[in-house]
Amino acid sequence: MATKVTRISAKDNGSKTREEKDDVVTRKVSVKAKGSESKKAVAEKKAKAKEIKKAEKKADKKEKKVGYFRGSAQELRQVRWPNRKETWKMTFSVIIYVVILATAIMLLDALLQLIFNKLLGGN
Prior knowledge:
Layout: H1 18-33, H2 39-78, H3 84-120
Helix pairs in contact: 1-2
């Protein structure tokens, strides 16, 4: 089974930021307004442009949320999960490491307690 590899690059793909898009919409409205249109028509167009911006912003938020879960699912598909044998091997390795480390800490604690008792003249 062939896996699909997605290559990601840091190149600028020429996409505009939210502010640049908003500036373009505002400029278009103001250029049209300079013609023979009335102030009421200009105000209506600006209000419509604001509504469009709000709708786009709402859609972007929704797409970000959906995109997060899509990206998470894609990452989970790329994970190489261990089989049962590897899982038990790693589990026993962790248990052995914990036992060795706990023993070392207990020995160090006992040694330091002995040293401090001798130095301070305790029992």
